[in-house]
Design a protein that fits this description.
single chain, 133 residues, alpha+beta, two-stranded antiparallel sheet, 4 helices, 4 strands, 29% helix, elongated
């Protein structure tokens, strides 16, 4: 098991370069503070993403939405917290529509995209490119 060293700042530095290096070391060892963690729903079987009629009725009634079984084919809202909450409460079998087998992916990235082949979907984590200067 790798342990992270603890950095305690006991000296007030007057050198700007030392300050910058200290900050970079601190950020490097504490990256999990800045990583976005989220969950995404995707379909893991042939047939495409669809919700069950029961799930649609529950979402429409509880949140006042006006959706149908195929409203979430567009991947933009697959990380919707209320959708994921219902999925966790009721389970995949109750939540999945006809020919769908919906699953939950946990991501630690800046974003995601969903690739699809014949209805089977794959979650691809997307990272922002940046340079620390």
């Amino acid at each position: 098991m790798i342990t992270k060293p603890m950095f305690v700042r006991a000296v007030v530095y007057t050198d700007v370069k030392v300050e910058k290096h200290f900050l970079l070391l601190y950020l490097f060892y504490n990256l999990e503070l800045f990583v976005k963690k989220f969950e995404v729903l995707f379909n893991k079987s042939f047939g495409g993403f669809s919700l069950s009629k029961e799930a649609v009725a529950e979402l429409n009634h509880t949140y006042g939405w006006k959706i149908n079984e195929y409203s979430f084919n567009d991947i933009k809202n697959r990380h919707e917290p209320r959708l994921i909450k219902l999925f966790k409460e009721k389970g995949s079998k109750w939540f999945s529509g006809e020919c769908a087998d919906i699953a939950l992916a946990e991501c630690e990235a800046d974003g995601y995209s969903i690739k699809e082949y014949d209805g089977i979907e794959f979650v691809d984590e997307q990272y922002a490119d940046f340079v620390i200067v």
